[in-house]
Amino acid sequence: MSHPISSEFDIIFAGGGATACVVAGRLAACDHSLRILILEGGPHTLNKAAHVQPYQYPTHMAPTSTTMTFNIGNPTPRLNGRAPMVPCGHCIGGGSSVNAMVYTRAPASDFDDWGVDGWESKNLIPLMKKLETYEVQPDRPTHGYSGPIKVSSGGRKLAVCDEFISVGMTYHKRPYAEDTDDLEICNTYSPWAKYIDGTTGRRSDAAHHYVYNQAHNTNLQLWVGKRVKRVIFEDKRAVGVEFISDPVSCPDADQSSSFVRASKLVVVSAGAFGSPTILERSGIGAEAVLKRCGIEQLVNLPGVGEHFQDHDGAFIPYFAADGVDTLDPLWRGEENVIQENLAEWEINGKSLVAQNGSDAKIKWRPDDDELKAMGPVFQQRWKEFFQDRPDKAVAIFAIFAGYYGTLMSVLPPRNYFVATCYTLYPVSAGSVHMKLGENGKEEIDFTTGSLDDPSDIIPLNFGYKRIREILRRMPSYRGEVPAGHPSFPEGSNAVTREVTGPVDMNAPDIIYTAEDDEAIDKFHRDKLCSAWHPLGTCAMKPRADQGVVDARLNVYGVTNLKIADMSIAPKNVGTNTYSTALLIGEKAAMIIAEDLGIDRKP
Predict the structure, then answer these.
(1) Is this structure's pTM higher than 0.85?
(2) Catalytic position from the list 311, 433, 524, 533
(3) Which domains does the chain have, with CATH numbers?
(4) Annotated catalytic, 90?
């Protein structure tokens, strides 16, 4: 479908991810006369099984996937010379259409810590409630019950997750709470709610619930397969964008540029990787970056692309008992099991189709004994950041019933579970910039910063040991999958193996030697991966503090240009970031409606 160059809209969104869908959808519903265009590089997701059937989310990580962008970082000695990779959604709905659908929310204090006028938690909690229908429990004061995004327990309970909670409470000596996403509670074992509609069993994403449900509004248009190159300015006023056919989703298309005008506003919403590089291609950024790319500087904003942050973790496989419910047969593609579960799902929205594999988590804070075991380097970080902030967790410990990953081709077809520990407030930070390759072609200059700060690896190393002890005591435990664990020295007490059953609840913990500790450290440097939560590269801070946008999301130094996505987060958030992306969307919709003088609140 070709679009005339003379096309004009009121508002253009550069990027069609979760936040863009929220903002565009709210504004379109509020004022049907607004001509809104979303330009998205990836494909449509409307009613596609890979997006609406929850169990299928791992398929988007396939190397041939066109619904994800795999951002490759610069090799780093901290990861033993490895080049890290951070995936991001590349489709309508962005991450909301491909993520693992786990429901977590940051503590309210995270937003207060941002220190941005209007973005304090007291102003955001009403928006958190507005965006959700919390089907898990009634009458919870910080949850919403009439919003577009559904939150439920999923389509079938997983017994191994109940085991994780039970052993965690007994062995790990932490209490139980039904809701650890009330913006305050942490350090308790709890069920893990999901962005899955409890009635239909479908993924609850921003695409279907903010944009696709407004197909009747011809003034809201989605153009897919369109990659925004840059924002067009007239006297530092954003007046439109230049775009090309996306080379990934439209490899055979003509790569010549097209232009489209925006009479009121351009909103860059291309995420922690796309938004800073669109700004740089538009002449907004640090002088040195633009100069080496041969781009004339329009605005000197040295914060563009800086302050990259993420959450770091590892996914570690274990053998599970025969006969327990896991997603393994579905993820392996066993057709009879898939069809049986699909048949039930199509009737009542239940079955393993409406599962992501995890019903259990703890937002973990170490106790005194754990802190002592973690040593002085982390103790200093604890004292400076965590000690007086009791609502902030160091990491999330969780279990997934089933294994999907690089070892699938060599592992026997049986039941597994996967343990994960990912840290929520690592100190390390990186950067995302554009650069020109040897052939003059644009590339990404991406440094994760992972593990640059020596305190960041310590909770991961300790978390490996602690979660392993919990799993060893679960009734369904049948040992470790050696290929997915550290390589401990021969004869070590820590050597991994398949076993016939769990140890006693009161069994002694594994004693790790200094050599064993080195093996765990090496394992994390070799295997550590992103939790898919990149943020911060167009930070909402004062301009003098390397900020890129102000509290109204305006890009400094120009007019009629805003940014709305996770790149604006000025500090990390202790959560899986979909909840924050939705929240930024709701807040951005309010801000834009006020700027445009729209009477009705979106």
Answers:
(1) yes
(2) 533
(3) 1-151+202-309+430-451+531-602 (3.50.50.60), 155-193+312-423+452-527 (3.30.560.10)
(4) no
